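Here is one chain, start to finish.
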Amino acid sequence: MKISLNWIADFVDLPRRTAAETAHDLTMATVEVEGDEALNTPDGQDTSLEVDNRSLTNRPDLWGHYGLARELSAIYDVPLKPLPGRDTARQAATLLGTIDPATTARFSAAMVTGVTNAATPSWMSERLKRVGQRPINVFADLTNYLMLTVGQPCHAYDADKLSLPLSVRRASPGERFVALDGTECRLQATDLVVADAKGPVALAGVIGGLDSAVGPSTSRVLLEAASFDALTVRRTSTSTNLRTDASSRFEKALSTQGVDSVQRYFAYLLHEILPGATISGYDDRVNATTPARTIEVDAAFLRSRIGEPLSIDHLSAPLKRLGFGVTARGEHLTVSVPTWRNTGDISGPHDLVEEIARLHGYERFEFRPPVIRLNATARQFARGTERRLKEFLASACGMQEVVNYPWPDEADVAAIGGDAARTALRLHAPPAPEQGSVRTSLLPGLLKSIRVNLRWQSSFRIFEAGRVFPGTEVGSIDDEREQLPKESRRLAAALVGDDAAVLFRSAKGIVEQLSRRVHVGPVRLEPGPVPSWADPAANLTVASDAGIAGQLGVLNLRASQAAGLKRVFVVLLDVDLDRLVAIPSRENAFRQLPRLPSIDIDVTMVYADTVRWEAIARQVAAVNPLIAEVQFLDEYRGKEIPKGSRALSLRARLQHESRTLAMEEATAVGQAIRDDLQRTLSATAR
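Its structure:
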């Protein structure tokens, strides 16, 4: 947008400054000036400045020369001249019909009679040329001049070409409209039009129609000035692909009081340019007015954010120069916002801080280097748990990490079973018909990954870590206004192969190593409730100091068939990462390596299936102080073993710190182990 400094000087006495200095001052007024161009004009030397429109998005009051003059008068602290206006006897007339209140806050129309085919004054034509406008005819130039002065668009119709009254309504789908520039449009139901009895005569807030344009033979003119809804104008401009100076201003939201300014200035210029023309009728429809806004603020709030101990007078003066009303009661200010700043620009005390600071002068603020404080960060031990667990599974356990979408296939959800499908959050627009909800567990995604990988391999190990949404419950994190679904951090792993016993024991070994390798508190495997997907004969509950932390089990036949997994066994591990208690540090203590050799003895006994390995190992370790470690070796079931029992082999390592053990001692300890197991666990020799 181009502006003329001579045009601005009509309303404010600018100090003697260079064009570059004035451009800098406007930049301090939040207007981005791109460059300047000196012009020799009939009324003397002028300077045209190019203003970046993007810097004015929140300042519709600066889209006219009078608004810029008001800004410069505040910057230079010089009086602002009142906008010329003329109050004429306005005879009420019925010029308007139905005005849509949802899209039009105000619509006024003035009927001008006694119009003659006069030429545009040279001073007006030259000024329009300086700011990039092409002179057309006296009324088209007059409306452009009004808009570029006040910032409020208006439009002139040839009244003899209208079938009054005018109305504002939505267009009918497919309705035809020809714009002033010759563009023909087929309108949509969302477009807003100004219409007479015959049809649309203008796109509201965008452009007038060719059929009602003012021409050389015009004798009566109807001047329209209105306040349209910003979003509606934007949509109409976009749908018709017509973007004009008027639509650019209406899209920024203009106050309804601007209609008064442009009508009074129009009456003044009409009298100066066409003294024989008169305003013979006037109609004004006010559906709503731009409301007044009052901001209450304490001086302490302003000072703390400005960074200077400004007095009440120094806080009030810049606002008053900008047209704000300020009333001080002690250290409290009541600020009334002018209507031209109350359409999305000034809304609260924080906006006043900016206005005061920039008029006080940013260059007057003392430079203060930023204070950088280096404080020790709080150690959050739980943050590294997930990474350490993933590194352990990948490096020590030979697993591959997989990543699945958070919307599993419903068939895999059904294979896992339980109430996951019933409690899952449904997606409003699912990516596929069979992926209609977000995951409540990582296990359905693992089933799909297993099915895909079985095309190439018959045995492998995979895992996935991620967030799940366990139900429909919602809550807030740090803002009660933002309600989000509850989340849980989970890790799931799958071991796939042809031997369920080996896979299950491997998974148990992984869980038993978590405390030592992942830096978490004790993790135990205990009997517990059987998950819907697990084999009743091969499942365990993962427990920690925080409670039940997960499940471990062999995928049962029902779930395997439902998931399409054939001729393989699958062991699944599902862990709640929030239930793994991170510990600050391991309790490390020095233990000297044995200097003397140890002796290993193997013991094989037959036990009932109800006797668990944990009970056997615990019982053996307590038999004799020489037993330093108990290890599981093997398990056997066969025709020599009674039904409902199994033979279990273990190895006990014997160690003495100060002498070498004799074989006779080892034999005696072995026999003591057998006797104790027979007595306490009803074991029998094989």
